[in-house]
Specification:
This protein is mainly α. About 65% of the residues lie in helices and about 5% in strands. The protein is built from ten helices and two strands, in the order αααααββααααα. A hairpin with a 5-residue loop joins β1 (about 80-85) and β2.
Length: about 220
């Protein structure tokens, strides 16, 4: 869905923004009180001037506390308070939720991208293993993703297993956590680690030959 269309859907309130805020308040860096204020603002503001007294009728908070929360939302760039000229030529404060809408769009697109990437990982496993994954195997792979292993590293561990003729996820799990202990994060790190291993093997062979000749 194009960004401008998604933004329009949110503004027209055909998308459940309050539910989205509750599910993603940590990503928005919101406190529980700020969530409450923001939902009230969304339900009643956007096209009318900012009226602190009217807001107090709906939120059981002290006036000073409510003003603090609104100021905090403004500082976090969740809302903006703009001055506009009304029909009488007077300046009025106007609460804009444009910044909130932009953040919702960005979070939505990020989540969708992560979901697509995960789907690609599952497809890669089924292709390499030549079979459909079991529900337990799906959960194991999901666990790696949740544990912050990159898609690249998971696929590389899969290829390592296939190369060694192993087609179970327990082996891949050991490979991944073994790489983590060595601080291996990408393909270049794996190549360097393999080169170090080969060099150590050569050194061991040379030492063995030398001791044997001495005897």
């Amino acid at each position: 869905m194009p960004t401008e269309i998604l933004n329009k859907v949110i503004k027209e309130k055909t998308y459940n923004v309050p539910s989205f805020i509750l599910k993603n308040y940590e990503k928005l860096n919101l406190t529980a009180e700020e969530v409450l204020v923001l939902i009230v603002l969304y339900n009643h503001y956007g096209k009318i001037s900012y009226d602190i007294n009217k807001l107090l009728e709906e939120i059981n908070l002290e006036k000073y506390k409510l003003m603090q929360l609104i100021s905090s939302l403004e500082e976090k760039k969740i809302i903006s308070i703009d001055l506009i000229t009304n029909s009488k030529g007077l300046k009025e404060e106007y609460i804009s939720l444009e910044l909130l809408y932009d953040k919702i769009v960005n979070i939505y697109l990020d989540v969708k991208e992560e979901t697509n990437e995960s789907a690609d990982i599952y497809s890669a496993f089924e292709k390499e293993l030549g079979r459909t994954l079991s529900p337990m195997e799906y959960e194991i792979i999901k666990g790696w993703v949740m544990d912050k292993f990159s898609d690249e590293l998971i696929i590389l561990a899969l290829k390592e297993a296939v190369y060694n003729g192993v087609n179970n996820l327990r082996y891949i799990d050991k490979v991944l956590y073994g790489w983590r202990k060595k601080n291996i994060k990408n393909k270049q790190d794996i190549i360097k680690d393999k080169e170090k291993f080969k060099n150590r093997q050569k050194e061991n062979v040379e030492v063995f030959d030398y001791n044997w000749l001495d005897e």
